[in-house]
Amino acid sequence: MASEEELFSNIDALLEEEPQLPPPAERARLREAAGITQVRLAQALALKSTQSIKNWENGRSEPTGSRLAAYQRLLRGWATKYPATGTAPAAAPASAAVTRPQVPTMFTGPAAPEAPESVPTAPVQASTTPERPAARPSSTSRRPVEKKPAAPALDPRFPHGPLAVLDGDGSAYGTGGIVLECPATTVVELVEWTLRESGFGAPKLNRYGKDSDPLIVLTAAAAVRLGLPERLEGHEQRRSLRLPEDHPVVKQVAKAKWQLTQRGFGPWARIYRKAQGRERQCVQLAILSWDALDERSWPGVSDMEPADIARVLGAYAQRVITPRGSTAVSGLELMTALRPPTKPERDAETGNWVSSYNPGSLGTAPMDPAPPEATPEHPVVVNSGWTGGFLNEEAYQWVRSVETLTDEECTLPFAVGLDLNTAFLAAAARLVVGLSAPDHFQAPKFNPKIPGSWLVDLSHIELDPRLPSPFTPDGTRPTGPAWYQTHTIAYAQELGYDVHPIEAYLRRETGAYLDPWHDRLKNAYVDTLADLGVTRDLDDRQFLAAMEQHKQVDPALSAVLSAIKATVKGGVGKLRERPQGKNYKEGERWPALERPTWRPDIRAAVISKARVNMHRKLNNMAKMTGLFPLAVLSDCVVYPSPGDSPLDFLPYAASGKPQPGAFRLGPTPGLAKLEGVQSMLWAVDLMEKGLNPARHIKGGDAVLDEGE
Q1: How far is the CA of 570 from the CAs of 18, 32, 332, 435, in angstroms?
Q2: Closest Cα to residue 138, out of 99, 188, 94?
Q3: Contact, 300 vs 293, CB < 8 A?
Q4: 338 close to 520: Cβ distance less than 8 angstroms
Q5: Integer Cα distance of 497 and 489 in angstroms
Q6: In this structure, are strands 452-457 and 503-507 parallel, antiparallel, or unpaired?
Q7: What three-state secondary structure class fits 533?
């Protein structure tokens, strides 16, 4: 048997005439760095690479400019397939690629592989905007990045991270400062390059889940280079536009035996073939000039340089999920990725592995809601002739009556707005929801541990008119029997009132379905804030100062934070997606109903708990301080204040610590931050006009967090 070095020498002799490959000593170092130490690996490398080299020389394989990248891919791939004895598979390190000094270092390490449920994310380093390379990079370019102790390990199957941003020169900017040369000039070539050569993708977030498909983001110039129009134009909203079926690119995709999803070739296009075994064949495209990145969720990102766009999206992919559409779509996809509907199970009779229900998930089949949980156009309502009313569990939109203001309140100089951090996310923590179909009950005894919808008369409950009613979104007192989610009724009991349900739709199988979703998004939110200088160890005064300037610390990371917040709101809203399109007819099923994640009852549970949490704090504030709010809009509340800071009216103990139960400042979900400050005269003027000060106190028009 030939020695390992002899075999490598034979290969090197074939490579000697190729000027773009490193010298033999450098190749030996690359092999050593890749962990290639076994003779059997050397034999496999000799057999396979010899044929590859002959193909190159005969002009049947890759162009000259790609040979170095191919050589490195051989090293990485075989090092993974044939690891050295006693060692784990190793990915090629940063030093195994050519450094291009003209392209400055970017942020972040590659995407982290996930443990079965969730994995804490690594801190993200802030940086300045990198310049574009002076010339088109060679096939692979990874600049050395300072290694941080907490950085996660590379998944050897996805050495280049979860995604890339492709520009018009064919440069694909990935995470961690990597730049690859993409030779594709058509969409089909791009898909095949992405799957076969690029090394893009991300590991599954749950052991029963699926790996994330690679995402390629196209700049306007890249879209044109691939034969796509720079923009989609039409009379309808741009989000609903797509290429026509007879467009040349759509025809090319079909001719190459690739498929598009039902939403066609739009701003977010998925191109796939049926999976072969466990290997998925799917690439996600996002086209920036087609408004793939909504400015409200990704502020300023579309206008950034490709390297910075890769930085923003890479951080989001590392901490949340590889984007698969809007932040709302990604929020919903994250639920499924963390709670896969099925798991493999061995059949007792045949001994074969079969797909079975994964406990705690929503399963694979869509589930119709109870009539009061549905929307008026839903088939279960229209076909049954239901007239019994609907759940109205929505976020607060309440303005206090001017008549209830006292002289003392009117003489206070300021109106101060507090905003609860990701209130819906805080409500999702340890939230028990139904997993099975609803069952109907007449006159049941109320049980706060059973999720469902209850018909109850709460009109007899009289509360302080200076506070909103906890039972209605507009804060008015109920006028008769109405449908409520479990948390709303449980809060009535908490306030000391008897409740006697008339009927109910309840679920027998329950679980904390949203727990892993909550945990991952909470970590993403807190870690990103910490990277912007807002950490948990700050006292309240330091926290307010840090929040005042955190958006200026790093606009890219600030955009990541906005996207995380939009993921929470949009994901909750997608649980009750309404029909879209002017041709929809009442009573017809719409596409969203075919998803197991179309669950308006879960949405109602989140919003009910969030509204109850808000009222509980309002009530406790009144007891502790004697202060009553002027207005509430979802998770924003406005208080009259003697000073221009929350420190002037929030309750603190003698020790200086915040009083539990009231509003508290801090960077975690459910705690509060300053939303804005205006004069009391300004607030009263809006109230007299019937307008909500909480909507405008930040300046401009606040977004209502309805979960829509």
Answers
A1: 53, 47, 8, 21
A2: 99
A3: no
A4: yes
A5: 10
A6: antiparallel
A7: coil
State pLDDT tens for residues 610-643: 999 999 999 999 999 999 999 999 999 999 999 9
What tokens appear for 307 in the block?
């390297």
Q: Which residues contact 707 (CB under 8 A, 6 or more apart)?
A: 395, 424, 569, 572, 573, 575, 576, 603, 606, 607
Token pair, residue 652, equals: 């603190």
Helix (H, G, I), strand (E, B), or coil: what is residue 626? coil
What pLDDT is recorded for position 46? 43
At 576, is the secondary structure helix, strand, or coil?
coil
Q: How far apart (Å, rounded) are the C-alpha atoms in residues 140 and 466?
A: 65
* Spatial distance between the Cα atoms of 635 and 694, rounded to a whole number of angstroms: 9
What is the per-residue pLDDT for 143? 38
- What predicted TM-score, i.e. pTM, was given to this entire model? 0.80
DSSP for 328-343, please give it.
HHHHHHHHHHHS-SEE
Sorted by sequence, the CB contacts under 8 Å of residue 496 that are 6+ apart come out as none
- Phi, psi angle pair for 484, to nearest 5°: -135, 150
Q: Is the torsion defined by CA of 679, 682, 688, 693 positive or negative?
A: negative
Instruction: Tell me the C-alpha distance between 357 and 130, whole Å.
Output: 47
3-state class (DSSP) for residue 365? coil
Listed in sequence order, the residues at least 6 apart from 450 whose beta carbon sits closer than 8 Å to its beta carbon are 486, 506, 507, 510
- The single residue listed with the structure tokens 């520009």 is 167
User: Which two three-digit tokens encode residue 405?
Assistant: 């203001």
Which tokens go with 468?
């909103």
Average pLDDT over residues 380-402: 96
**Cβ proximity of 522 and 669 under 8 Å:** yes
Structure tokens, 399:
């303005």
Task: Give the DSSP letter of residue 65.
Answer: G
